[in-house]
């Protein structure tokens, strides 16, 4: 089956037809026959990181075939499975993965490859859960990545091949309660930023850049939840009758399985705003206050283009192209209005202020920096370049976007 597609936000149309192989063997044949090919997940990227001028392949017709290794504490599954579906399958086995992003609709393979994350001082990128990859290379053969090379292969933006199966670390299933909070004085962020994010398993703040924080979500793991004010923000309880209502947002005020509480949106619902663009920058925690102050200095220009910013924390890792490589980070996510004429000119102005503080952009979202600026920010840059030259010297999995951000 071949079709033409746009991405979820409908801000770009892919440059190539999308093929949906029905088996790994069909995928191998398609890749081997192509001169340029790239994997396409659930189309939640806002940049052209998943585009190609050759052939796009989506693995959504291939069964996930979940295999659990209880002794190793891992599960292996098809890369196309959506995170929410993976959570439900693992829950049937009494298992879970440690963290999830706000959207459970994203494929595991796409999430791992593109620096997708949730929130929590102790929670890393989803890619940090990966223990092994199976990848179809440029000749159609399957290659396994494990050991030291995995740090380069796991977050590769599709540059090393089509990931077919992923082994992830799992743990016993756990429950999460999320509690929403109202407006928080900005002075609380200035005075208590570290304490706010250390207060629970996962914390998200929602804000603009003029005025106070608009609200927050505090997600507690196997605990009583947060009662009373939260750093100056008041609880916003809901009627108990709404807890199981068919709304787009996940339930608050009671405990539930982690796969249904760590995301902000329900798997069966249309997520987020819909008419939007997104950008995100990851700032070392030591420079977070400086970055927020710099952004508030642009608040009068940013806010007219903005739906909301979400602030989250991500733990440091050692992945070569990770925006959290080497440092705990504050993730500053911008959900923009669908107004590219306002948004795109803002990005260089934002980056001029926060990239010197060590910020790194989310490659699957909108940003302005390119290879000449990016290469200075990743200690694993040269290691990844060598691995890519070894695996795909002819750039079968390259595309114009990767040429711009990787420099080749």
Automatic annotation (TrEMBL):
<protein>
    <submittedName>
        <fullName>Xylitol oxidase</fullName>
    </submittedName>
</protein>
<dbReference type="InterPro" id="IPR016167">
    <property type="entry name" value="FAD-bd_PCMH_sub1"/>
</dbReference>
<keyword id="KW-0560">Oxidoreductase</keyword>
<dbReference type="InterPro" id="IPR016166">
    <property type="entry name" value="FAD-bd_PCMH"/>
</dbReference>
<feature type="domain" description="FAD-binding PCMH-type">
    <location>
        <begin position="10"/>
        <end position="173"/>
    </location>
</feature>
<dbReference type="InterPro" id="IPR016171">
    <property type="entry name" value="Vanillyl_alc_oxidase_C-sub2"/>
</dbReference>
<dbReference type="InterPro" id="IPR016169">
    <property type="entry name" value="FAD-bd_PCMH_sub2"/>
</dbReference>
<dbReference type="Pfam" id="PF04030">
    <property type="entry name" value="ALO"/>
</dbReference>
<dbReference type="InterPro" id="IPR010031">
    <property type="entry name" value="FAD_lactone_oxidase-like"/>
</dbReference>
<dbReference type="Pfam" id="PF01565">
    <property type="entry name" value="FAD_binding_4"/>
</dbReference>
<dbReference type="InterPro" id="IPR007173">
    <property type="entry name" value="ALO_C"/>
</dbReference>
<dbReference type="GO" id="GO:0071949">
    <property type="term" value="F:FAD binding"/>
</dbReference>
<dbReference type="InterPro" id="IPR036318">
    <property type="entry name" value="FAD-bd_PCMH-like_sf"/>
</dbReference>
<dbReference type="GO" id="GO:0080049">
    <property type="term" value="F:L-gulono-1,4-lactone dehydrogenase activity"/>
</dbReference>
<dbReference type="InterPro" id="IPR006094">
    <property type="entry name" value="Oxid_FAD_bind_N"/>
</dbReference>
<dbReference type="GO" id="GO:0016020">
    <property type="term" value="C:membrane"/>
</dbReference>
<dbReference type="GO" id="GO:0003885">
    <property type="term" value="F:D-arabinono-1,4-lactone oxidase activity"/>
</dbReference>
């Amino acid at each position: 089956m071949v079709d033409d597609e746009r991405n979820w936000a409908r801000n770009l149309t892919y440059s190539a037809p999308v093929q949906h192989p029905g088996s790994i063997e069909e995928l191998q044949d398609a890749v081997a026959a192509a001169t340029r090919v790239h994997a396409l997940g659930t189309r939640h990227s806002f940049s052209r990181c998943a585009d190609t001028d050759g052939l796009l392949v989506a693995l959504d017709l291939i069964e996930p075939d979940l295999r659990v290794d209880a002794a190793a504490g891992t599960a292996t599954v098809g890369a196309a499975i959506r995170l929410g579906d993976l959570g439900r399958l693992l829950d049937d086995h009494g298992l879970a993965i440690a963290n999830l992003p706000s959207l459970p609709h994203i494929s595991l393979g796409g999430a791992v490859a593109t620096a997708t994350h949730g929130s929590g001082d102790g929670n890393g990128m989803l890619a940090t859960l990966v223990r092994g990859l199976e990848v179809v290379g440029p000749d159609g053969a399957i290659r396994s990545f494990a050991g030291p090379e995995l740090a380069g292969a796991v977050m590769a933006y599709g540059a090393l091949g089509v990931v077919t199966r992923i082994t992830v670390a799992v743990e016993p299933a756990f429950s999460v309660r999320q509690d929403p909070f109202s407006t928080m004085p900005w002075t609380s962020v200035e005075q208590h930023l570290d304490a706010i994010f250390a207060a629970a398993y996962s914390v998200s703040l929602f804000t603009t850049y003029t005025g106070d924080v608009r609200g927050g979500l505090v997600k507690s793991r196997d605990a009583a939840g947060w009662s009373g004010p939260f750093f100056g923000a008041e609880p916003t309880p809901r009627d108990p009758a709404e807890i199981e209502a068919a709304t787009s947002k996940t339930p608050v005020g009671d405990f539930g399985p982690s796969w249904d509480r760590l995301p902000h949106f329900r798997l069966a619902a249309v997520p987020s705003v819909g008419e939007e663009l997104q950008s995100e920058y990851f700032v070392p925690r030591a420079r977070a206050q400086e970055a927020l102050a710099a952004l508030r200095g642009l608040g009068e220009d940013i806010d007219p283009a903005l739906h909301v910013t979400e602030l989250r924390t991500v733990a440091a890792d050692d992945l070569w192209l990770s925006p959290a490589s080497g440092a705990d980070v504050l993730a500053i996510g911008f959900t923009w209005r669908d107004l590219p004429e306002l948004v795109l000119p803002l990005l260089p102005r934002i980056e001029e202020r926060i990239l010197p503080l060590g910020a790194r952009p989310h490659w699957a979202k909108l940003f302005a920096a390119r290879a000449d600026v990016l290469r200075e920010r990743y200690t694993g840059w040269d290691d990844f370049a060598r691995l890519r030259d070894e695996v795909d010297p002819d750039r079968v999995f390259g595309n114009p976007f990767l040429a711009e951000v990787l420099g080749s």
